[in-house]
Amino acid sequence: MNPDTVIITGASVGIGQAIAARARADGRRVINLSRRPCPIEGVENLAVDLAEAAQVADAVAALRARLGAPGRVHLIHNAAFPIGDSVTDFDAAACTRAMRINVVTPAELTAGLAPLLAPGSSVIFIGSTLSEKGVPGRLSYCASKHALVGLLRATVQDLFGAGIHTVCVCPGFVDTDLLDPIRARPELMQSVLSMVSFHRLLRPDEIADIVAFALINPSLNGTIIHANLGQREG
Ligand SMILES: NC(=O)c1ccc[n+]([C@@H]2O[C@H](COP(=O)([O-])OP(=O)(O)OC[C@H]3O[C@@H](n4cnc5c(N)ncnc54)[C@H](OP(=O)(O)O)[C@@H]3O)[C@@H](O)[C@H]2O)c1
Predict the structure, then answer these.
(1) Does 46 sit in the ligand 1 pocket, CB within 6 Å?
(2) What count of Cα atoms within 13 Å lies in the side-chain half-sphere of residue 122?
(3) What CATH number should be reported for the domain holding residue 134?
(4) pLDDT tens per residue across span 24-74
(5) Cα torsion 97, 100, 103, 106: sign
(6) Among 5, 16, 36, 132, which has the minimal tally of Cβ within 10 Å of its Cβ?
(7) How far is the CA of 92 from the centre of ligand 1 (A)?
(8) Is residue 232 part of a domain?
(9) φ, ψ for residue 5 (rounded to 5)?
């Protein structure tokens, strides 16, 4: 029997790379979509800028050709544009880019690949604590991550009865390049860690473990899983 295929966006670094490494270790075929390649051995790479509609359409066509026929496919929407704007410092162009990469492209990839997802497949959205919570200075990022919950719920309804499950995994603070602005300021890092019950950042492989569990558990269909070590409320 052919192995399951994982199609993941943004596996060149960070959480995506950890998910790709775990999927390869679990014996899955892995195809990554990002601008830089994923360095994990055996991962197939499609170079694509997920902000560019034409490149996303080409990627869908290339993936359809590579997959050939329907099979068990796990589509993991992981790439994101981490914009930091606000109500008083709004950047419409950056917001549009964030919505394209974080929301429109995942919807387009799911739509384009849906005919190839056989029963047993899954669609996984990588959300954030900010999928269900607001913080100052992250207006567009927060809106785009909330939108993923909308995609999750609507996708469950649209794929009802197809034997495909959909989950939104929401990490807390994970030690990746996305946190560079925080890593660069020790006082900010202290403030972040003081909000986390375990006083540490998550490792990318901890999120990869949650995703690996979500792929094979259809009972999770429609759920939001928070993996954040426990954060201070208020
Ligand atoms: N780290 C955290 O604390 C944290 C917390 C909550 C949620 N998350 C979420 O977890 C996911 C992964 O985050 P991360 O921390 O691993 O981020 P990261 O280390 O910055 O990696 C981001 C990935 O997205 C890809 N990407 C970004 N823009 C792209 C574009 N235009 N075209 C193609 N690929 C693009 C990058 O690939 P290329 O640059 O090679 O194209 C890279 O592989 C994101 O959805 C993020 O919102 C992270």
Answers:
(1) no
(2) 27
(3) 3.40.50.720
(4) 999 999 999 999 999 999 999 999 999 999 999 999 999 999 999 999 999
(5) negative
(6) 36
(7) 20
(8) no
(9) -110, 130
